[in-house]
Amino acid sequence: MPNIKSVFSVVGALFLVAAPSFAQDVWITANTPFVELDLNDQFFVIERNPDNDAVVPAAFAKTSRACPPFCVQPLQVADGVETIAELELLDFLENAAQNGGGMLIDARTPGFYRAGTIPGSINLPFTLLTVGDNNPFLEPILTRLGGVRLSGGGWSFADAKELALFCNGPWCGQSPRAIRNLLEVGYPPEKLKYYRGGMQNWLMLGLTVVVPET
Q: Looking at domain 4-50+77-204, does it have CATH number 3.40.50.360?
């Protein structure tokens, strides 16, 4: 399997945000040539690769991976959690994330994130959301997401942010595990969205990928 970092570095060079390609004939929808975002103190343009001969990077072209751990995930990861696709994710970024009410979470381990991710995402590895007394990261993370620790030991998520989570695709269990961990501590399912397609579908559609600076 090709080194995923080198693959994504190439992808990132091809898709790094710049001025939108006005002359391109590969729009996102018939009415949307590109999407502009101002997120996390950065400006992004999400568009599709205008090269009609572009193909999915080799690292994401494999049809079979050992299961476990790379097992096909269900369409609905948990009761009450909405499963979304690309257009719904773009709407989430334009509205909930851009106005500060939501966050796009890349739930993959850092190596994947550093190699390339969806513009505007924040890396919150599923491993940091493990529920238990031995995880010192969980409480500060939940607080950052808008949770409030209650005197009885539980959590209030009345003002918590709406989250959309993704990982490597329909065969990746990292974001489903993150979602289930959040539900276990009481995060409201209606405030969680699951982008099941993940990087697999994002790349398949030629959408912009960024390589984080840090």
A: no
- Secondary structure class of 206 (helix, strand, coil): coil
CA angle 139, 145, 146 (to 5 degrees): 95
Q: What is the mean pLDDT of residues 14-22?
A: 46
The tokens of 186 are what? Answer: 């009481």
C-alpha 175/C-alpha 198 separation (Å) is: 9
* Residue 3 contacts residue 65 (beta carbons within 8 Å): no
Q: Render the burial of 118-145: b for 16+ CB within 10 Å, e for the rest.
A: bbbbbbbbbbbbeeeeeeeebeeebeeb
Give tens-digit pLDDT for 148-174: 999 988 999 999 999 999 999 999 999
Residue type, 103: M
- Residue 73 DSSP code: P
Distance CA 101, CA 105 (A): 13
Single pTM value for the model? 0.88
